[in-house]
Write a structure and sequence with these properties.
4-stranded antiparallel beta sheet, Immunoglobulin-like, mainly beta
């Protein structure tokens, strides 16, 4: 029994984590996708903030690899801001590193007046 417990506590953890850093002046949604394109989570990251995300693999099949990850950054209107691919677990996924237009449309104030 003691050997089993020792083995249980020495096995590697089954969690994937990322730090999502929004270095823009607008809130962005981060879509975190697994290697097969499955959506793992959608997270709102406020301007100039870093959000720590962790996924435990309880709901995933043990044989299914979810890494490398992709992070899709979306503007508040759903418009694509940028994409990061081949993101390793534990990495910092920054808006500065993504590929794409890297800007969000600013609503026209005159249209609301």
């Amino acid at each position: 029994m003691k050997t089993f417990l020792l083995l249980l506590f020495t096995l590697p953890g089954y969690a994937t984590s990322l730090r999502l850093q929004n270095e823009t002046t607008c809130p962005l949604r981060a879509l975190i996708q697994s290697a097969d394109g499955s959506l793992l989570e959608e997270v709102l990251v406020m301007p100039q903030e870093t959000f720590s995300w962790e996924e435990t693999h309880k709901r995933l099949a043990a044989s299914k690899s979810i890494t490398p990850l992709s992070v899709i950054w979306l503007c508040s209107d759903g418009e694509l801001y940028g994409v990061l691919e081949d993101v390793s677990t534990g990495a910092l996924a920054s808006t500065k590193q993504c590929v794409g237009k890297k800007r969000c449309s600013v609503p026209n104030k005159a249209a609301h007046e």
